[in-house]
Sequence to fold (166 residues):
Amino acid sequence: MRPLTEDELRSAFVNASADELRLVTLPHDFVLTDWDHLDFLAWRDPRTRGRGYLIAEIDGEPAGIVLRGAEGSSHARAALCNLCHTMQPADQVTMYTARKAGEAGVHGDSVGTYICADLSCHENVRLAPPLAPNEVRASVDMKIDGTRRRTEAFVGRVLETAGVPR
Fold:
């Protein structure tokens, strides 16, 4: 990702009201962000339970979405994150929803998917097990590319509204 200033980050949100933008709490280590190694930026709001944020580049421009995590817990033992395809204990994967951008969001339309509860997908795909003697690093690189593509597709679904440039 290209580096973003705080103002650029706030203006990138496509499904946030002016009041929501004022409440956005940046990651505590935002000034230390290593942008060269990020495919997307995602974090939980430390002040608001269940709220998260995700910024991805869509067609070369940053697009951010406000996420709302579901309350409660699953009775399943394990769950799969739909972004990073990492199998986690069920309490570490949450259904996140995002209000659609534009007029559709005003009318209450939203999209959702299961995501790692702490929004750590970017790191999770990079935690590769040791390579077997006949294994190549390309499998991890493919996981990283797949996570980026699925993340951009999810943000794209939020943008699929008349009048929102893509």
User: Anything to note?
Assistant: The two ends are 17 Å apart (CA to CA). The helical segments are 6-11, 18-23, 102-106, 121-124, 138-159. Residues 138-159 form the longest helix (22 residues). Strands lie at 40-44, 51-58, 61-69, 78-80, 87-89, 93-99, 110-116.
